[in-house]
Amino acid sequence: MNTRTVIRGGLVITASDEIHADVLIEDGRIAALATSGTPAAEAWTAERVIDATGKYVIPGGVDAHTHMELPFGGTFASDTFETGTRAAAWGGTTTIVDFAVQSVGHSLREGLDTWHAKAEGNCAIDYAFHMIVSDVNEETLKEMDLLVEEGVTSFKQFMAYPGVFYSDDGKILRAMQRSAENGGLIMMHAENGIAIDVLVQQALARGETDPRYHGEVRKALLEAEATHRAIKLAQVAGAPLYVVHVSAMEAVAELARARDEGLPVFGETCPQYLFLSTDNLAEPDFEGSKYVCSTPLRPKEHQAHLWKGLRTNDLQVVSTDHCPFCFVGQKELGRGDFSKIPNGLPGVENRMDLLHQAVVDGHISRRRWIEIACATPARMFGMYPKKGTIAPGADADVVIYDPHAEQVMSAETHHMNVDYSAYEGKRTTGRVETVLSRGDVVINEREYTGRAGHGVYTPRSTCQYLN
Predict the structure, then answer these.
(1) Theoretical Cys-Cys bridge with 77: which of 70, 128, 156, 284, CB 3.0 to 4.6 Å?
(2) Is the distance from CB of 89 to CB of 442 less than 8 angstroms?
(3) What is the pLDDT of residues 312-328, one digit of tens each?
């Protein structure tokens, strides 16, 4: 049962405002805000009062790119919906959008039903789904219309991974044409997978088998080329485009050019591209395998271009692409052959803290932090203002955030079900203290009080930047 809750004395930060205000929560939603200390605020009574003096009161994070229990490379992502959403809550994220997978030869509906079965009753926070489209045909295209109507309004395609998820330009074009009609949003993994496969085989033939070669064969130019091609195909189809996990400065330049032309093109990057680099991929004793993901980590000089893209709004969203594989027994599948290392990093618990560190470091403002981590992903994927803000009527997904607490990121202390941290030993300033999901306290002063099954499935409307 939800009780009335008042959060008193904090600095409420949204994408548009910073205000010292008290927040009244009733029946799982934000009921009202009032300036702290005023008669209106003082008159509120509640069963639960949370003192946020000296703290930030921010919307729960919206991570629009996660892969719980994803089958990949002969194994499965190590976080289940239960462990992954619990870790998300610890990190101040209260909504995830995960990817249901259509397998070649099967329907979209089968894939979506499979992911519903994985998630239902297991999630600590609210969740929604995108649909990975691996097999474009007449039936698939009809199904896309039906999925949009029922609240699965985004479809991911891959220019990478031939033989697994790959779609050729013709299939991509047909899906884009359909989304132009039904209001869906195509999300693109933009890398030239056909060319990359050639470079992989050539590298292995030369005996270049270490993890660092994963980054060397997946060239930035092949990310830029695919990004350019995806933009042009979307332009031909008259469709919007969202490019996932942008890592290379050359790809950012393609997005910036398209946006300067007024095209409905959007870009996402991830914390690993902002904070890690090819230096990590080159770590000795196969440690570099921990950092194998696609698109790959880039040389450090790319980071400044990504930060600039986030400031200029050529990149709009920071998601995690959370897809963890344990070092022992999973990443090790690629010893002696980097192409067999499962692709993916853990990060769902770290995103809000890393982006707050970016505020501390002067890369972005506090409001931009909330914009790229909460408000924009909610708008991009049709969940705003239910999610992504603190305003009357919004779901009471609220984080009390201590901007002064210091922490050291470590596998010893994180809650993700993976045996290493991509940010091991990194010192950050700022930490989640208390988290409410639809008015229920799921983290209470650094103690987990949530439960599997609290999180509910959230149907989405279409992209709110296109209406």
Answers:
(1) 70
(2) yes
(3) 999 999 999 999 999 99
DSSP bridge partners of 401? 56, 432
**How far is the C-alpha of 45 from the C-alpha of 43, rounded, in Å?**
6
Residue 2 has pLDDT above 80, yes or no: no
Contact 148, 183 (CB under 8 A): yes
Separation of alpha carbons 265 and 243, rounded Å: 8
Give the model's pLDDT for residue 303: 98
Token pair belonging to 262? 């007024």
**pLDDT given at position 36:** 95
H or E element, residue 430: strand 427-437
- Rounded to whole angstroms, the Cα distance separating 383 from 360 reads 29
Report whether 230 contacts 185 (CB < 8 A): no
CA distance 319 to 352: 10
Question: Residue ranges of the alpha helices (H) in 261-375?
Answer: 271-275, 278-281, 301-312, 351-360, 366-370
Mean pLDDT taken over the chain: 97
Reading the block at residue 218, the tokens are 């997946």
Q: What is the pLDDT of residues 356-368, one digit of tens each?
A: 999 999 999 999 9
**pLDDT-based confidence at residue 74 (cuts at 50, 70, 90):** confident
The pLDDT, as a whole number, for residue 467 is: 64
| Dist. CA 44–CA 186, nearest whole Å | 45
Strand (E) or helix (H) holding 12: strand 5-13
Alpha-carbon gap, residue 53 to 375, rounded angstroms: 24
- Please return the burial class of 120, using the count of CB atoms within 10 Å of its CB with bins 0-12, 13-18 and 19+: middle
Higher pLDDT, 263 or 72: 263
What angle (nearest 5°) sits at the alpha carbon of residue 377, between those of residues 183 and 321? Answer: 105
CA distances from 195 to 169, 217, 294, 295, 437 (A): 14, 9, 15, 14, 45
Q: How far is CA 106 from the centre of its chain?
A: 26
Cα distance between residue 349 and residue 402, in whole Å: 16
Q: Per-residue pLDDT for 90 more than 70? A: yes
Please report where in the chains the tokens 């993700």 appear, as a residue. 416
pLDDT in tens, 426-466: 999 999 999 999 999 999 999 999 999 999 999 999 999 99
Strand pairing category for 61-66 and 71-72: unpaired
* Torsion angle defined by CA atoms of residues 387, 131, 227 and 167, in that order, rounded to the nearest 10 degrees: 180
What are the CA-CA distances from residue 426 to residues 84, 285, 357, 407, 409 (Å)? 21, 21, 11, 8, 5
Report the SS3 class of residue 385: coil
Rounded Cα–Cα distance for residues 247 and 189 (Å) = 11
